[in-house]
Design a protein that fits this description.
heterodimer; A: 64 residues; mainly alpha; 2 helices; rod-shaped; B: 224 residues; Four Helix Bundle (Hemerythrin (Met), subunit A); 7 helices; 75% helix
């Protein structure tokens, strides 16, 4: 537990500074954002198909 | 372009802000955590989202018991299935993080065990639902179960892990978020992330509930 009370010094804590300094982190960010865009696109597609199905079912059941 | 309820647009907007900000925004430099401190933006919103979804599910179970309207049962079902999905994602993302900060995928930590038990209760809810052929009996019995499940969820996740020592940030005697050393920069991304993932969860549940509705209408129509 004692390690939790160590003072966090900014100089020695290792972060992903290299990936940020040479810009390669943006490659991963682009990948993640594209995947997210794909998922959103699919959700929209589901909305579209589901709304059509709801309308069809309502029209059909209202008639009979 | 389908017509979307405004909250769904808000979910898309917030998520497309939160993802780049979560990756690129400034975070405190901490030993052990290093960059994994960013898990706060992605892992923690899963649990917050789960709580909101399961609360909505319990609310609709209560509404069903009051007025016996079938759409409440559908909503309770849908919110709980997406809540379960978020919980499973929360548990697995937590395990990945734990391997690299606590040194083990599973260390039997009170927070881990309690969340596993909580998820098992909601898995049992799935089994319970599928074991009744008659919709009315299914709706009534599973509504009662769902209320008990939600009532046990709160002590499991928020009270029991705090009564003992836990590795998890925010536990082991620490009641709130202070142990995260959550500074202003992180709050600015964390709260929108919680809202964004919660709204996404409600969106998924909405799709599922509408699918179930069409399914039930068709079933009633063709069995008559």
């Amino acid at each position: 537990m004692s390690i939790l009370y160590l003072k966090n010094t900014t100089a020695i804590v290792e972060m992903a500074d290299l990936m940020r300094s040479n810009g390669k982190i943006y490659v991963l960010l682009a990948v993640v954002l594209l995947i997210f865009a794909g998922i959103v696109f699919f959700l929209m597609f589901m909305e579209y198909r589901l709304s059509k199905l709801e309308k069809e079912v309502e029209d059909h059941t209202a008639k009979n | 372009m389908p017509r979307l309820n405004p909250y769904k647009w808000l979910a898309i907007l917030l998520l497309s802000l939160v993802i780049p900000m979560g990756w690129m925004g400034d975070v405190p430099r901490k030993i052990i955590l290093n960059e994994s401190i960013r898990n706060l933006y992605f892992h923690v919103p899963m649990w917050f989202g789960m709580i909101f979804l399961l609360a909505a599910s319990a609310w609709h179970s209560l509404c069903y018991l009051r007025d016996r309207q079938m759409h409440h049962d559908r909503l309770a079902d849908s919110y709980s299935i997406v809540g379960l999905l978020f919980g499973l994602l929360g548990l697995t993302t937590g395990m990945i993080w734990a391997q690299f900060t606590w040194g083990a995928w599973w260390s039997g930590d009170p927070k881990q065990n309690a969340s596993a038990i909580a998820l098992l209760m909601y898995l049992a809810y799935r089994v319970l639902r599928s074991s009744f052929p008659q919709p009315d009996t299914r709706a009534r019995v599973s509504a009662v179960y769902n209320l008990f499940a939600f009532a046990s969820l709160i002590p499991l996740l928020f009270i029991l892990p705090r009564l003992t020592d836990s590795l998890h940030p925010g536990n082991g005697g620490n009641p709130g978020f202070n142990s995260y050393d959550l500074d202003g920069r992180m709050r600015l991304i964390f709260y929108p992330a919680v809202l964004a993932f919660t709204l996404l969860g409600f969106w998924l549940a909405d799709l599922y509930a509408r699918l179930r509705r069409v399914n039930q209408i068709l079933q009633e129509h063709y069995t008559r």
